[in-house]
Amino acid sequence: MANRHCQFINVPRRVVLHRITFKDTVNALQFSPDREYIAPGFRKDVFAFELVRTLADCEDMVTTLDWSLDSKYLLVGSKDLTVWFFCVEKLKDGFSNKPHLYLGYRDSVVGFFFVGYDKKTNKMLREKGICTRGNGRGKEKMGLSNLLRKFHNLLGAPYRGGNVVIAQNTQLISPVGNRVSITDLLKSQTITLPTQSSSNIRRIAASPDGTFLLTVDENRRCQFINVPRRVVLHRITFKDTVNALQFSPDGEYIAVGTGKLVQIWRSPGFRKEVFAFELVRTLADCEDTDIEIVYDKKTKKVDKVYTIARDCFILSWGYTGSDSETDRNDMETSSPPSPGTPEREGEGNVDGGNENSVKKRKVFDGKDAEGEGFLHKGKWERLRKDGFKQSSAKVTACDYHRGLDMVVVGFSNGVFGLYQMPDFICLHLLSISREKITTARFNEVGNWLTFGCAKLGQLLVWEWRSESYVLKQQGHYFDVNCLCYSPDSQLLATGADDNKVKVWTVSSGFCFVTFSEHTNAVTALHFMANNHCLLSASLDGTVRAWDLFRYRNFRTFTAPSSRQFVSLAADQSGEVICAGTLDSFEIFVWSMKTGRLLDQLSAHEGPVHGLTFSPTNAVLASSSWDKTVRLWNVFEGKGATETFTHTHDVLTVVYRPDGKQLACSTLDGQIHFWDPIDGVLVCTIEGRRDIAGGRLMTDRRSAANSTAGKCFTTLCYSADGSYILAGGNSKYLCMYDVADQVLLRRFQITHNLSLDGVLDFLNSKRMTDAGPIDLIDDDDSDIEDGVDRQTRAKLGYELPGSMPNRGRPIIRTKSLRIAPTGRSFAAATTEGVLLYSIDDSFIFDPSDLDIDVTPEAVDEALKEDQLNRALILSLRLNEDSLIKKCIFSVGPVDIPAVAASIPHRYLQRLIEVFGDLLESCPHLEFMLRWCQELCKVHGNTIHQNSRNLLPALKSLQKAITRVHEDLADTCSSNEYMLRYLCSASANK
């Protein structure tokens, strides 16, 4: 939480809309329910964030906050063991200057909830039309050039902390490093927004309609993001650490718990202002960090509040109105109690009561409000106090569901509990792991519970009624070492230092199988040509073959003595498996069918870090730290047939897809291209200056002068061999043209300042006598979200001879692979597996620009003879009658042009429509021409997304097969009659 930078991200468009830096650590962040505060909206402002008001009642850091559904009340919890209740009288006049104060806690308050809401207010919220979205599309279609590859998705990155948000009941929004990931729980798909914060995201909040997303990172910088457009609308920086963040239920306000203060910001919405963020009020009643809220369904007023403390106690508070003049006079003459002042006898305490006894306490009320529904009279009293009975455990996460009146609580020992209120009945008490739960959340309906464990990098969505998992995803705990595409480009396998092999579906971003049989780091992966077998090599001395049908290890290859394998290759037939070692400098050759060791190739004098078979013949190329690249004829057993020497250690070697060129990288930052047939050096690329960039915290030289260790450790040819991708110990990926040996493009893989080596210039003000201030662990011991630095410090990084940056991750690329289709590539980096793609499925269609999607618009487009626009509009409306009307309005001559204009995201729906029409429509030739043109134009897309389109394609195939069988029976029984009719027509 050093820089406090905040990014405001548009989730659907995956772009950062705004940025701001807060002055202090942000401990709480929340949109107001009416979306008027915190969220800048779509306004095009010079400075989108406008500070409305600062509340400075807290004496210590704010930890949690929440709004009431009508945005009239705000609850603030703090580390000073107090909870403050603020009343919004009028937005123009600010907030009440006399808030309620709740005392009596023995530990930090981690949750605070109102119970219930007003049904009338909820109805007004639905009628306001806050969910209005623009139909404009601001991006142009991406070309098919390799230079236009853009960020597509992030795989394998673990959940590192921060709160999660469930938008629209089925979309799970979670921070992943300095990015935001959105998971569709129904479709089992996950996407990562292209927007980046300046450091790891600490808090996120979504507007009630899910249109806006607010993110705050460790540097207190806030981004206000338009989710549908995936762009950042506004940015703002808070002055202190944000520990709580929440929209008000109507989306008009945002409450931010920053340090000891609670700031109420007005949500900009769609207004076009110079500074979109307007500070309404600052609450400063807290003495420590805190905040949370909820409402009552049956009444217009708040009549009950639940507070949850970290010491495993939940308190129920009730509000009772007082209409008597005597009580009113007593309240007016009473003075507010000071924090920590003991209560006198006779002021409502019950003598002789136990912990669960009802205790009443007179608390200072807020200022009388003129508006209806405000808590201007009466008093609060504690109804009951219940304990969770978790010995030596603390409450680390909690959430409350208004409709079900349930509370879910996560503890530091990995246990979570689900409780029915107000009777405090335990429905479930289960253990997820032995590590603390860092986030817990209900969905809108209340049937799903979301849990996150930052130390394990795990996210779970659990349906408590059926006791089944909806989602269970876990990234790699340590860095990803290797990756490999399947031959059809639909699967991606990753191996990491956590001894696990994971297989991902590229289109959905989901991991569907994890293999954990290895006992040491996985160093190399290889897919077999049949697409159903995966090979993995590990430092545990084994090479394992995995069956992707049965999800089992069906063969294990080992050496006669213990060896550490760091490279792997297989021939085109899949009969021979080769692996290079780290310690004995040998290459072992096995038979895939029998599992027997066939040969040991010994010629290298250093670790064999590169192995690859020629695509055209049975020649094996190997690279080693002994400064050589050797070619082996494995099948004839003649040993090394050719040796290419270099002046520096060779780090990796790859063949061009046609087998006529060999590329290898050396320790001096050069890429050498060899002709393997003639054995001559064709050309060399000097890439040290291209990959140079990024200064470590411990570097004594600038990034421009420090090129030591800047080299390419991984290479990959494109599908046509025209360009080559290179990555290594740098924040850059370099794309070179092989023929001209020039740099085409350089990708910066991250802008996350939480990683080391991202900045080219360091701030001298952050240098102390003890070293860089960013490397000093000055976090509090009870900070629940700061697990990265503390966890890595416990892994032995502070021992003598260990990493000088004390475990701070260094940005680098360990593996690169280009998909066999050539339309995307994957990079295994410190942050995870980054996917870059030139697919235009995520680009908005220009034909949707400024068009009202209505049936009238479809009819108007048909009248104007704009057939493609009419069909797209009907697909967006998803009305069968309109879609069929537009299909039959297209003439046979116009079918190719209209089919080519259909965006990829509508293919599945269109294929389903044709499957239905073929079963009932008499225009068979017309339908088949449509299907033929769709397959011609969109064949590549259908092939890449065959897993997603498989149900629609099967229904279409079934319909065509049925029509074919009916016609075949009819024609076979009337063959001679048909011949007669054809000959008779010819004679005429």
UniProtKB/TrEMBL annotation:
Keywords: Repeat, WD repeat. CDD domains: WD40. One of its GO terms (cellular component) is Pwp2p-containing subcomplex of 90S preribosome. InterPro entries: PWP2 (IPR027145), SSU_processome_Utp12 (IPR007148), WD40/YVTN_repeat-like_dom_sf (IPR015943), WD40_PAC1 (IPR020472), WD40_repeat_CS (IPR019775), WD40_repeat_dom_sf (IPR036322), WD40_rpt (IPR001680). WD repeats lie at residues 473-514, 515-556, 601-642, 643-675. Residues 323-362 are annotated as: Disordered. It comes from the Eukaryota. One of its GO terms (biological process) is maturation of SSU-rRNA from tricistronic rRNA transcript (SSU-rRNA, 5.8S rRNA, LSU-rRNA). PANTHER family: PERIODIC TRYPTOPHAN PROTEIN 2 HOMOLOG, WD40 REPEAT PROTEIN. Belongs to the WD repeat PWP2 family. This is U3 snoRNP protein. It comes from Turnera subulata. The lineage of its organism: Eukaryota, Viridiplantae, Streptophyta, Embryophyta, Tracheophyta.
